[in-house]
Amino acid sequence: MAFQLVNVQSLEHAIQAVNDSYQAFHVVRYLNGWMMAGWVLLAIGAYRSGTMGPIRSIALGSMFFLPLGTLKGTRFESTFILLGLCIALIPLGIKVLREGPPPSRKAIFWTIVFIVGEIVFIVLSVIFPEIMKH
Length: 134
Hints:
The chain contains seven helices and no strands. The longest helix has 24 residues, at 76-99. The model has no long low-confidence stretch (mean pLDDT 87).
């Protein structure tokens, strides 16, 4: 939102809006600690169940260090923390795709519907950018 405010209003107004709303109440803020602890719990469960080995489980647990909050995910170290998530989950996704059951016709249908719908929205937003400003 702050980046869009710079385009719509000015840098000064965007800075003021972020400063004014940074400490505003949001229920999720009080759950941040539990969400971060959840990554560690998920990593322990993945390791103990044999779903992931020690390296991938540690990579999954590294999400504990990802800062949460306004613009925190844009920090330099966030890239490396998110790389840990990729190291943990991409091999699991490939395994599920190779060894899991094939998707149902209904799942294939809805996947195609959502992909086509997203392409339509992207094309319309490029052709008619004023729609995106409202």
